[in-house]
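Fold in C-alpha cells:
===
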Amino acid sequence: MRCLSRLIFATIFLTSLTFHGQAQDSMTTTLIINANVFDGVNQKLMPNTDILIEGNLISRLGTNIEAPSGANVIDAAGKTLIPGLIDAHWHVTYAYTPASILLLNRGDMAEVAIRSMTGAKETLLRGFTTVRDTGGNPFAIKKLIDAGEYPGHRILPSGPFMSPTAGHADHYGVPSDTPRDKSYLNYWERNMMAMTSDGVPEVRLRTRDILKSGASQIKITTGGGVSSLFDPLDVSEYSVDEIKAVVEEATNYNTYVASHVMTDVGIRTAIEAGVMCIEHGFFASEDTLKLMKSKGAWLSPQPMLEADMNWDDPISAEKFKQVTAAVADLYPLAKKVGVNLAFGSDQLLDASKAHQQSEYLVRLGKWFSPYEVLKIATSENARLLELSGPRHPYQEGPLGVIKEGAYADLILVNGNPLENLELVGNPEKNFVLIMKDGRIYKDNLKNSIDINQSNIEQ
C-alpha cells in the first residue's frame, strides 16, 4: 500500500505542475458545422454535416442546425470528422518507461507514474482517445484523467498481466529467487504491474484481486513472449484447468479474459478454455482462426517490423525476429477467414518509439482499404471493448462512432483519410482538432469561436 500511495502522490504532484488551467466545462455546448463525417461504420461520408455536442455527448447530427445561445461554433470548412481512435493493446505504464527501469528491477513506481502521465497526454494528441490497457497499473492515472484533472485518453485497464512462474510476467531472477511461499510479492507485483501465480487456487485468488482493483478485463499469458527471458516462444503457459479457473472468475464478474500467446497450440488451448481475445497470435493456423470465428473471439495482432524495436538482449532480439517474420502471413489469413480483428500497437519500454502507434495504423493499409482500417480502429475496436459488459467504465454512450447519443470523442482531419490513409500517420500535422468527452484538447483552426485554450498543450 505504501508503494501505491507513492504512485498516487506522484501523479497528483505532476498534475499540479502541468495542468494549471481548468478543462473546458463538462456542460459546454459546441456546434461543429460543415464537416464531412465518417461515422466509424459506413464507408460513405455524410457531407456538409453539423454536429451538436452538449456536455460530453453528441446530441444531434444534421444540416443547418441552429447554434444554441452561448455555444462554441467551429466551422470545419469541409474537413473530415472521424471518431476518436482506439488502441486495443496499449500499456499506459510500460509505453514510456525504459526497459532498464522495468526489466532490470531498477525502477521506482513514482517515476513510472510521472512518465506515464505525460505519455497519456502525448497519446491523446495523436488522436487516440481510448486505449485498452493490456498490462500494468494505470488505475490512479485513469482516475485523474477521468476526473478531468489531467489531459489523457480513456483507459480500460486489465491491471497486472498474469503468468505462471517462468512465464511472460515473471520478474524474478534466477530460479532460486522465486519464493516458494507466494504470500511474498516482489516490487512490481506489489505495485500491480505484473503478477505470477501458480495452481488453480492461486490463479483464482490473483484474478479476484485484480478484479477487486478495478480491472475491466483480465489479461493472462498462455505462451512465450519476446521481452521475457525464461519462456521461449514455443512454450505453453498455464494448464487448461488454470485457464478455465481464470475464465470462470472473470465470467462471474461479468467480463472476459484476453491472452498473450503466439503459437497455434497455445491459441487453440486458450480459446477452447474460454478466452475471448488473443493478443498477438502471430503463428495461428487457418483452422484455429476458424475456431476463433465460430466462438466469436477476437484476434489482436500488431503490424510490427524487425526494425521497430531495439533489444539489448540477443534472446529477445531473436524472438522478435521470429515474430515479425510471421506478420505478413497473419493479416491476409485473418482477413480471409473473417475473424473479429482488432487494432493495437503494443508500444513499450521506449518513449522514443511511442509515435509508432500512428505508423502501425497506416501499415494496415497493406492488407486493408483505408475504410476498413479506420473502421477497425474505431467502431470495431469499440465492439471488442464492449465484451467488458458492466465492467466497461464508460457507459453513458457508445465509443468509436459518430451518432446521436455517442461520446463526443472526435478528430477533425485536414483531408480525407478514407482516400489517403497516410494522413493518420502524421497527426501533429493533419489532425487540426482533437476532442475527447466534449472537451477540446487541440485546436489548430483559425475559424473557431470562443475555444477554451486552458487544456490545450500546456
User: Anything to note?
Assistant: Residues 266 and 348 are 23 Å apart (CA to CA). The two ends are 32 Å apart (CA to CA). The mean pLDDT is 89. Residues 85-391 form a domain with the TIM Barrel fold (CATH 3.20.20.140).
